[in-house]
Amino acid sequence: MNCINAYEEVLIGSIKKQTGSADRPQTTQKETNNCCLWVFTKPNRINFISIFIDQASAAAMHHFLSVLLVINGLHVSVQTAGRRSARSVNRHYRSWLTVSNGMNWGSWGFKDMCPSGMYAAGFSLKVDEPSYGFWDDNKGLTGIRLHCIRPSRASLGLYEDYASVQSEVGGWGQWTEIKWCPCCFLTAFQLRVESFQGIGDDTAVNNIRFKCSGGSLLHGDGTSWGEWGRWGPTCQGKAICGIKTRIEEPQGSGDNTALNDVRMYCCD
């Protein structure tokens, strides 16, 4: 076996181990007549600790380095996104907003916050397309995404430079177009929720509305089941700056509802 074949065999084996425990890193050592390489793996991560190559043709070496650069590039892109989110989670908030008509299925996900100095001026929804067959399992709203900009950009209605944040989302549906406040930021919200349907098809949260600090209302492109509840309180502080969602995990052959409730965070 030559060095490149050994590399490919170890790489494939390492990828197959990605489902292992995140707290228990795995190592693989592969020896051939021409090379010895060690691979350190964790879920969603492949790091080549050391590579020793005694002999390899120029063409094989070029191929090896090209593949390695691609993998490293993928690794960097994944980790960069994770670091940005991890930093924003720790942002200080002044208050949080809730509504009274959320449902209780599922569990609360993680809190995700706009980057420091930015506030939510727009939102988009992940919506399960409605179907009306007798045995169809509709989920309604399956996710909410906030889009954050800086005050200097919001006052001018400039939305090109924004950061998106979201908590847990369901696996069904497609994202809608972003809706932006004509001026300034999101400050309050209201949910459209379907109550418990007994033996019928439950959908829980189906739509959302937001108030903007400039006085405008933004209506989401969700579904029409259920009823609108009361508006939640208005932000104490400048505007909404973070979100946490309550999501029901997939129920297999049972009745799926996905998004059940939302909490918004407000920052000065």
Automatic annotation (TrEMBL):
**UniProt cross-references to Gene3D superfamilies, sorted A to Z:** Vitelline membrane outer layer protein I (VOMI) (2.100.10.20)
Q: Which GO terms describe its cellular component?
A: extracellular space
InterPro entries in alphabetical order: VOMI, VOMI_sf
What is one Pfam family matched by this protein? VOMI
Per the record, the domain of life is Eukaryota
Annotated protein name in UniProt: Vitelline membrane outer layer protein 1 homolog
